[in-house]
Amino acid sequence: METLSHSLNIVSFDVPFPANYGGVIDVYYKLFWLKRAGVKIHLHCFDYGRGQAKELENLCEKVYYYPRKTGFLSNLSLLPYTVKSRQSKELEKNLLNNNFPILFEVLHTCYLLNDKRFANRKKIYRHSNIEHEYYCELSKTERNVWKKNFLKIEAWKLKRFEPILNFSDLILAVNQKDTNYFQKKYPNVKSLYLPSFHGNETLNITQGKSDYVLFHGNLSVSENYDAAVWLIENVFSKINHKVVIAGLNPPKFLVELAEKFKNIELKASPDEHEMEKLIREAQCHVLYTAQPTGLKLKLLNVLFKGRFVMCNSHIISGTGLKENSSLIISDSYEKFISDINESMTKEFSPQLINERQTLISNFDNEKNVKKLIEAVF
């Protein structure tokens, strides 16, 4: 890849290493590919528990860390808690020390967009979800009453805050459906479809077959544990195949539910190597969500590494992906059951691998980093 001499500020909502959950995967691999293309990155990230990461220094000219102001006081504002808790005088000072474009990762980092001191700077908003819709959907699945109310209020605040995007110069959306939303809602700002960056450079699927079904995700997030509960109750408990559910920090009620069924094994917080092995060796990947928001990075992961993929329509909403012999749309529990049963009898052949290669062409990191650089510079 030809090298350039551009410089860019990136403001990240969290420390993007290790790249072990949806949002930070996009940030980390964006850094990786921008560095490879010769862009000099000044990374500004909010640390609220992940700690400083030496690995980021290899990808960036400079890495700045800011404490996130979590706690009750950040709730006492009409600004969303996710935004208010990421206000930082130090960040403002560091961004004013250079004149490079600023890429704000997700709405949570966008409070400076309408600041007059940055009026002449190029400002880019990187979308992950339409946040007020995402928080509203999370509130529907949240079981804790306090958290449920917090999510409802936060959804209202995020909707009220979103028009700040009128002060950006460019919106980069992770799927086509949300690109259309921004084009319609903010017609004076250029919106561009740019899929998430991810850790896969080439297709890496094992031919043949195995004997288990896999569902994986960050199980501390209500969207994912709710999906796991729905699948256990309606699908996994009704099949005779071995099922593995794997992911970060599963809640106690999910562990207890999985324990009721002999064919279901729950692996709590497997390390990266074990998760990789589970994904590569599963015969069938089941993905399910009740909310059609953003781009699910676990979908990209299983398309690049996994055999048969069964998912509901919400998972591929806005991605341009179409059903084929190894990506199967199941929108009812009866169809999930019959599709899983059928896929468990098949070999994953070289022909299916070729079909998958065509399917993933939109998600090529090298092509997408060129698109990003052209749009920003």
Write the topology of this structure.
Blueprint: E1 7-12, H1 22-36, E2 40-47, E3 62-67, H2 81-84, H3 89-96, E4 102-105, E5 123-126, H4 131-141, H5 145-161, E6 170-173, H6 176-185, E7 190-193, E8 212-216, H7 222-234, E9 242-247, H8 252-259, E10 264-268, H9 272-281, E11 284-287, H10 297-305, E12 308-311, H11 313-316, E13 327-329, H12 333-343, H13 350-359, H14 365-376
Helix pairs in contact: 1-14, 4-5
Structural summary, described in words:
There is one protein chain. By secondary structure, the protein is α/β, with parallel strands linked by helices. It has two domains: 7-199 and 364-376, Rossmann fold, CATH 3.40.50.2000; 212-359, Rossmann fold. Helices cover 38% and strands 17% of the residues. The protein contains 14 helices and 13 strands. It has helices at 22-36, 81-84, 89-96, 131-141, 145-161, 176-185, 222-234, 252-259, 272-281, 297-305, 313-316, 333-343, 350-359, 365-376; strands at 7-12, 40-47, 62-67, 102-105, 123-126, 170-173, 190-193, 212-216, 242-247, 264-268, 284-287, 308-311, 327-329. The strands form two sheets. Strands 3-2-1-4-5-6-7 form a seven-stranded parallel sheet, sandwiched between helices. A six-stranded parallel sheet has the order 10-9-8-11-12-13, with helices on both faces. The radius of gyration is 21 Å and the shape is globular.
